[in-house]
Amino acid sequence: MSTPEPYGQASAHHPGGFADPSTGPYPVPPAQQNPQQFAVMPPQVVPPQVMVAQYGPAPQNGVGTGGFVTGLLGLILFWVPAVGIILAIIGVSLSGVGIAKAKRGEANNKGLATAGLTCGTIALAIWLIMVIAAVSVMP
């Protein structure tokens, strides 16, 4: 029984030690004999890809936004005698104009104007209920 040779030592099966493919018993393929056989292509430069996020147009309904703000303030301040009713009326008016502009296509933020109309209407309804209650209690 033969003992295996340690790594790096020439064996009896390979008398020359490690075989070099270019000079050893293995033939060199023809493509490796002439390295200029194929044309070398220059590396192609790929331009960087630019990603641009495209968003829709920004909300443009200043009248509707003003109607929302004044309608909400009218709803919050309904208990203040003159301020609440004035803000609620201005909120309903501006919100109505904002909704009309959105329907005509002059503005694109109809939701805020609708919210202002709702807040202003609720403030007017609460104020009206308070006035009716105050008048019915009077002698």
Strand content: under 5%
Number of helices: 4
Largest sheet: none
State the total count of DSSP E strands: 0
Q: What series of H and E elements makes up the topology?
A: HHHH
Unreliable residue stretches: none
* Straight-line distance between termini: 129 Å
State the helical fraction: 40-55%
Basic shape: elongated
Structural account:
With 139 residues, this protein is mainly α. It has a domain at 62-137. It contains four helices and no strands. The protein has helices at residues 30-33, 62-76, 81-104, 110-137. Helix 2 packs parallel to helix 4. The protein is elongated and about 120 Å long. It starts with 29 loop residues before the first helix and ends with a helix. The chain crosses the membrane at residues 76-100, 112-138. Keywords: Membrane, Transmembrane, Transmembrane helix. This is DUF4190 domain-containing protein. Residues 1-35 are annotated as: Disordered.
